[in-house]
Amino acid sequence: MPVPFEALIPLGIITVMFGASGGLFNMLKTSVNEGQPARYGLDRWDRAMMERDFRLTGTKRGQSHEAKAPESFSTSSAWTLESEHL
């Protein structure tokens, strides 16, 4: 039994909409992560390194090649923030 051609138009529209929304969502996630793929399955070590990178560079995905940390890094420790709230 043949498929009527009228059914192909909504099928094409649905396929294009799913493809467009998936492509835009992928572009959004990539742009939020500074052009790098999203991170999955993060453990405590990964989160600690992301926090350190954020304190060093100002972004969670950025890394610094400097051998010495900036002066502001010594006062932006998470431990000093926790001790102030206790």
From TrEMBL:
> What membrane topology is annotated for this entry?
Single-pass membrane protein
> Which positions, given as ranges, span the membrane?
7-28
| Keywords assigned | Electron transport, Membrane, Mitochondrion, Mitochondrion inner membrane, Respiratory chain, Transmembrane, Transmembrane helix, Transport
* Family per similarity comment: Belongs to the complex I NDUFA1 subunit family.
Please give the PANTHER family that the UniProt record associates with this protein.
Answer: NADH DEHYDROGENASE [UBIQUINONE] 1 ALPHA SUBCOMPLEX SUBUNIT 1, NADH-UBIQUINONE OXIDOREDUCTASE MWFE SUBUNIT
Report which superkingdom the organism of origin falls in.
Eukaryota
One GO cellular component term of this record is: mitochondrial inner membrane
Q: What does this protein do?
A: Accessory subunit of the mitochondrial membrane respiratory chain NADH dehydrogenase (Complex I), that is believed not to be involved in catalysis. Complex I functions in the transfer of electrons from NADH to the respiratory chain. The immediate electron acceptor for the enzyme is believed to be ubiquinone.
Q: What is its main location?
A: mitochondrion
Location relative to the cell: Mitochondrion inner membrane
Could you confirm whether the keyword Mitochondrion appears in this record?
yes
Coiled-coil region(s): none
Q: Disordered: where is this region? A: 57-86
The protein here is known as NADH dehydrogenase [ubiquinone] 1 alpha subcomplex subunit 1
